[in-house]
């Protein structure tokens, strides 16, 4: 039906979202090819995950480059050489330059462990606990030049409990990240995402207006 | 088991949240008495709702007072005279002074049509649409001296659709407001709310960690 989407996945660490995307492709839920997995850290366990599945990998250590622009230019070249159409940030702990972002217009996805615009930046789960919210979640969004900004593609909400730790809340959110990141990429693979400014329309979206939950639950 | 909680409800308009609270009390879901319903506007339809259910009402027109402090002092006196233990803001469109807030420490509840800390202030639903979020909701919180701030008691999440209007999203959120506002008051009536700084613990809370939803739905 559709040509598989060519992905380049950028990681810095464990790569559990990378694994979720690999799994979705292998079980044929997602029509995509991972053309290359790039890490900026040599000790990123995600590199081993990629190699285990026979994927091309590259290490691009930012310490080998004199500037962010030089690093980003090499990264763009590498991704272009591998035919990457869409860039997936999966725990990639580097800010990208405007030049990088402009090289893949509306084709860089990120996932953030909060319901943006709440709790942008680092340690979003901890921020949520410190504010005492009862619902948080995860957000897949297109990357623009501001951090944790850009058009929102998909979100998932989870309850927060007063006795949550940063780890327990992170685990609950991560389970949803593993669901929505492949699902959001799938919408692009199916050509169903229409971006207009900050607003994203999904072609042939089904509505489930009865969906809702509260936290704490009624007891 | 417990002594019914004595409520004072402040309104400025239609009072659908007032109606939801009246309904919860009448069907014995919520052990509370509404001691008085106060409006700062003579044309608030919520006054008629209150009278239909035999509740005491008062009109306290802010235009009759020379200052916010004077208005708030009269309001405190009126609520105290009626034995009000807990103040419920139900579409009350006035900022309350520090003096008012200090007269009911941790005993003033507000509901806001967004998942705070996202979209504080006016027209939260419109703010959510303009940002293009896919999940929003409602928040019941204790009032402190900052607007749409204070410890969060309960939240509900709903999906947002790209073709939502401010009206359609407001209606979806309002349906949840009508559920969580009586439910949050019930937690106070049952003596189950423990506030520590911004963090709120609910005694004997049941966890439903499987609760979650995503928007757009997987299709």
Task: Give me some keywords for this one.
homodimer; 219 residues; alpha/beta; Rossmann fold; 2 domains; seven-stranded mixed beta sheet; two-stranded antiparallel ribbon; globular
Please provide a written account of the structure.
Two copies of one chain form a homodimer. The first copy, chain A, is an alpha/beta fold. Chain A folds into two domains: 1-105, Formyl transferase, N-terminal domain (Rossmann fold, 3-Layer(aba) Sandwich), CATH 3.40.50; 110-219, Formyl transferase, N-terminal domain (Rossmann fold, 3-Layer(aba) Sandwich). In chain A, 32% of the residues lie in helices and 25% in strands. In chain A, the strands form two sheets. Chain A has a seven-stranded mixed beta sheet. In chain A, strands 8-9 form a two-stranded antiparallel sheet. In chain A, helix 1 (16-26) packs parallel to helix 6. Chain A is globular, with a radius of gyration of 17 Å. The mean pLDDT of chain A is 94. At the A-B interface, strand 7, helix 6, strand 9 and strand 10 of A face strand 7, helix 6, strand 9 and strand 10 of B. Strand 7 (152-159) of chain A pairs antiparallel with strand 10 (213-215) of chain B.
Short characterization:
Chain A is an alpha/beta fold and 219 residues long. Helix content of chain A is 32%, strand content 25%.
Q: Uncertain segments of chain A of ≥5 residues (pLDDT<50)? A: none
Give helix and strand order of chain A, one letter per element, not per position. EHEHEHEHEHEEHEEE
The overall pLDDT of chain A, averaged over residues, is 94
Q: Estimate nothing, just give the exact number of structural domains of chain A.
A: 2
What's the multimeric state? homodimer
Cα distance, first to last residue of chain A?
48 Å
The largest sheet of chain A has its strands arranged as 3-2-1-4-5-6-7
CATH superfamily of the largest domain in chain A: Formyl transferase, N-terminal domain
Q: Helix coverage percent of residues of chain A?
A: 25-40%
Q: Regarding CATH, which class of the largest domain in chain A?
A: Alpha Beta
Instruction: Kindly report the greatest chain-chain contact and the residue count on each side.
Output: A-B, 52 and 52 residues
Instruction: Please indicate the percent range of residues of chain A in DSSP E strands (runs of 2 or more).
Output: 15-25%
Q: Say what the CATH topology of the largest domain in chain A is.
A: Rossmann fold
Shape of chain A: globular
CATH architecture assignment name of the largest domain in chain A: 3-Layer(aba) Sandwich
How many strands, which pairing sense, and closed or not: the largest β-sheet of chain A?
7 strands, mixed
Give the helix tally of chain A.
Answer: 6
Task: Evaluate the radius of gyration of chain A.
Answer: 17 Å
